[in-house]
Design goal:
There is one protein chain. The protein has a domain at 83-243: Sortase (Sortase, Chain: A, Beta Barrel). 36% of the residues lie in helices and 21% in strands. It has six helices and eight strands; from the N terminus they run αααββαββββββαα. Strands 1-2-3-4-7-8-6-5 form an eight-stranded mixed beta barrel. Helix 4 links the parallel strand 2 and strand 3. Helix 2 (26-49) crosses helix 5 (249-273), helix 2 (26-49) crosses helix 6 (275-298) and helix 5 packs antiparallel against helix 6 (275-298). The longest helix is centred in the last third of the chain and has 25 residues, at 249-273.
């Protein structure tokens, strides 16, 4: 038996010769592209809820604080659920500055409590009065994701005070206590009194098992109030505690389609031009689309996460 015949039988290559590689078939290339897309999506999703979400939250807070500070200086900050032209305030409009020194917390409150609004900071529930006004005002904030502004809300103690600044001035609140599911309700408010309830998730970070509330009574002068935009029963479902923002489904589907199309185009580029060219074009494109998809997917998680 000759040497070449023996090598063909045992599958060995001649000495000093590299075995030839068979080009990957269409099925293998499609599988590789699908796994690459999945990896990009998972990475973008984790980053969006973690470090990149924190950076986004910080940026949004700086913009909101600058806007609110200018409106407070010009006496044009909103003092009710409608803008000066009579139209309802846009979701996310800065309405107040919450300061809790004990927690090192200084954050702008936006109007509304959808997942998107709460990604930028705490939000005012639109079926309640503004802070500083008679009645119960509710502000909701995230426990862990997007900066987790209310991550340490359970550390406040009864008797401590904090402030909320709105277009009607600086309002001081005294904490009644921390309240969890099943705990007794706070005393009923008397006529002309004000209260603020702060709400976030309770339990492990990113795995809340219920709601945590901090009730605080207004101890400074009560300001004239405006009727809330919604009644408790008519508040949109995506603004309630632990709600999902279902309006994110359509953008999610559209961005997902764009991602799949981009992956198909990049697969064609790889076949026609090579792997290096595909990577040079594909990394920024798939990355941007992956983050857009992950951003919309995050809105489908509970808004207090």
């Amino acid at each position: 038996m000759t040497q070449d015949t023996l090598e063909r039988v045992v599958g060995a290559s001649p000495a000093g010769r590299t075995p030839e590689r068979r080009p990957a078939g269409p099925a293998l290339r499609a599988t590789g592209a699908a796994l690459s897309i999945l990896a990009v999506l998972l990475l973008a999703f984790v980053a969006n809820l973690g470090p990149l979400g924190d950076l986004r939250h910080g940026r949004d807070q700086k913009v909101a604080h600058s806007e609110l500070r200018g409106e407070l200086a010009n006496a044009t900050a909103p003092v009710g659920p409608r803008a000066q032209n009579g139209e309802p305030l846009e979701p996310g409009t800065p309405i107040a500055l919450l300061e809790i020194p004990q927690l090192g917390l200084r954050t702008v409150i936006g109007e509304g409590t959808t997942s998107e609004v709460l990604a930028a900071g705490p939000g005012h529930r639109r079926d309640t009065v503004f802070p500083g006004q008679p009645g119960v005002s509710i502000v909701m904030g995230r426990q862990a994701a997007y900066g987790g502004p209310f991550a340490h809300l359970d550390e406040v103690r009864a008797g401590e005070t904090f402030t909320v600044t709105t277009g009607q001035g600086r309002h001081t609140y005294r904490v009644l206590g921390v309240r969890r599911e099943g705990d007794p309700q706070p005393p009923v408010l008397g006529a002309g009194q004000g209260r603020l309830t702060l709400i976030t998730g309770d339990g492990r970070a990113f795995l809340p098992g219920g709601l945590l509330r901090v009730d605080a009574d207004l101890v400074s002068a009560v300001q004239p109030g405006a009727a809330p935009l919604y009644s408790t029963g008519s508040l949109p479902a995506d603004e309630k505690p632990m709600a999902l923002q279902t309006s994110a489904w359509l953008p999610l589907v559209l961005w997902g389609q764009a991602l799949v199309l981009a992956a198909a185009v990049l697969t064609w580029i790889r076949v026609r031009s090579g792997r290096r060219e595909a990577w040079v074009v594909g990394v920024p494109v798939l990355g941007a689309l992956g983050f857009a998809v992950a951003d919309q997917a995050a809105l489908l998680l509970p808004n207090l996460l």
